Amino acid sequence: MTATTAHLTRADYEAIARELDAIRDEVAGDLGERDAAYIHRIIRLQRGLEIAGRAMLLASSLPPAWIAGTATLAFAKILENMEIGHNVMHGQWDWMRDSKIHSTTWEWDNVSPAEQWKHSHNFVHHTFTNILGKDNDVGYGILRVTPEQEWHWANIPQPVYNTLLAMFFEYGVALHDLELNKILEGTNDPEETAAKLRAIGRKIRRQWGKDYLAFPLLSGPQFLATLGANFTANVTRNVWAHMVIFCGHFPGDIEVFEEGRLEDETKGEWYVRQLLGSANISGGPFLHLMTGNLSHQIEHHLFPDLPSNRYAEIAPRVRALCEKYDLPYHTGSLAKQVGSTWKKIFRYALPGPRGVVPSPSPKAPAEHPVAA
Description:
It comes from Actinomadura yumaensis. Pfam families: FA_desaturase. Helix content is about 60%, strand content about 0%. It has one domain (about 5-25, about 110-345). The longest helix has 29 residues, at about 190-220. It contains 14 helices and two strands. By secondary structure, the protein is mostly helical. Helix 8 (about 190-220) crosses helix 9 (about 225-250) and helix 9 packs across helix 14 (about 335-345).
């Protein structure tokens, strides 16, 4: 229990779980042809953009072709990672029973092996969202993003760390499942770590072979220009993905929790933890598409396996539920969320304030009235 949820009773949590379960069941029961058509359309768009971008880069020595080809390729890579890869690997489209668009078969255009990402993200992060010591996404192991994290002198240059992390975000994601803290503590399984490193190495060779060798060679005398274009497209995709993900997890009044909260946590309490630990980005359809609909991070954390194209229609109902139970619904423009996130990164690079995460309190009596 936190100050934000002190007014909620056991009956409130049970009611919240029932209402959110009902939303999920309703949407899941309504999935059909229009949803399948959506993901097929996005995949065709992404592949068309990638072909167009790479075709333009065959003439990459010409500045207009370089700029247009790089921008188009970056757009294609963002779509593949955000709206397709991330969501397919979450199992959002498994209901279609299409082996080509399935969480067990999809390998994304990224140096992070899909299997490792699914463990660190789908299981660890979404199960233990914002639990200090359990959710490695809180600061990604190198950033202090909340006063509840202990300050160390190494945090001082974290704005620089974060800039580099943004530029090379796919590599940070690739290393995430290694759990570097365990390696440094000597508590990891050396054989498992070695196997993961080999998988990462294979994926890096595959990605580098494609972007930094095969396609530049195809452009002949434009080899260096095409290589630079592919590098730029990858960095652009990395910076965008980093920005979207950080804006969904670190801005404003996003809350973190101590591990004791997990003890006997009910489904309603899990739902509320997702609400308090996530933030949305307000905007139009194009922004939502480019973020992989992670601009609806709250809805994604509540329903990670529902197709992303449904989050926009779910969002007003979730917001109404938050108002009903007097819970915050964190949202804001992209500029606001980016500014808020970077403000935290600069502020918590310095010592203090030292926050205290309250321990779970006994459940309040069920007779307390539901918030209006």
